[in-house]
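ERR on first pass: missing label on line 2. Operator R.T. fixed the label and resubmitted. Corrected input:
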Amino acid sequence: MKMSCVPDHAIQKYVFNNPECDAEIIKHIEACEECKMSVENYLLLSKAIKEQPAPVLEFDPIELVFEQLTPAAKKEPIYSKIIYTFLVLSAVIVSMSVYVFKGSFSHFFSNTTLFPTYFILSIAILIMFILCYDLLRSFNKKAAILNY
Amino acid sequence: MIDQETTDKELVKKVLAGKAFVFKTIIANTQGLVIQIIYKMIKNPEDRKDLVQEVYLKVFNKLSSFKFKSKLSTWVGTITYNTCISFLEKKRIPVLGSIHNEEKNSVETLIDEKAIGNLINQTDLIVLNEERSRILTIEIDKLPPLYRTLIQLFHKQELSLNEISEITNLPVGTLKSYLYRARRELKKSLLRNYKKEDL
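pass 2 clean. output:
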């Protein structure tokens, strides 16, 4: 019994994924003029797509990308400027406070014994270090997010 | 393949070591694929330009995370494809368009296919005229963005189904099905166009 013409998806499978094609279908296509014509049409379509000219670019991708990469590499990020300004301001405020209150500051620890003074100072320094570390860590994390 | 991998590794190493100018070679090696994907998925010329820039800046910034599990070009292709998909989603442009709903009308489709098959035989494939390329470009552009891209990657870039699967993150079976529908739709629309011109 002669097999009727194979459906379009089988023709496409024969043309583009031949190893997956059924032996029965291959046998039919090779014997049927109508199916052979369909195969030929798909081959021509594929060839026509392959021969299409590449898109014409109105810009140079390398130039376009390096325009962005070069300034990004040279330019100092704005957040580092803010940090430095903040640090300088803090230093100025602390120095001014020490200068203004230097009279009363010298008597601050005079009435206390040495041990509690060192104890308070060491705790204060420890807390300050922890806070600075946490601040630096969250800053780096945010900077990394901003920079993709 | 080994040579390609070595070249990829050398290029990436140099860029990561601070030789940013080597990135020019990476752009030159991959721009064909990147441009084919962007040009097929995005229609607006300004958006295309912005996306080319965005893709390569992402590649540059993420280069340290490239693990050499695939070819560098495939990895760049994946970034390009994902960037385009995100862009289309933001703009609410459907990636698959209306063709995706065709499954519902399978009987109608079968009848159409038969009629079309006969017409092609009678006309001896209309795309073989001197305006073939122009007509083909117009008709490919009428396909949904994803189908346009798949046709281009498979037929023009001659990528394997596995490579396309890596780029698009779609299973090979789905790709085959999309490619089949895309080619069938292309054939249909070519004939529709031909008939209009003929009349």
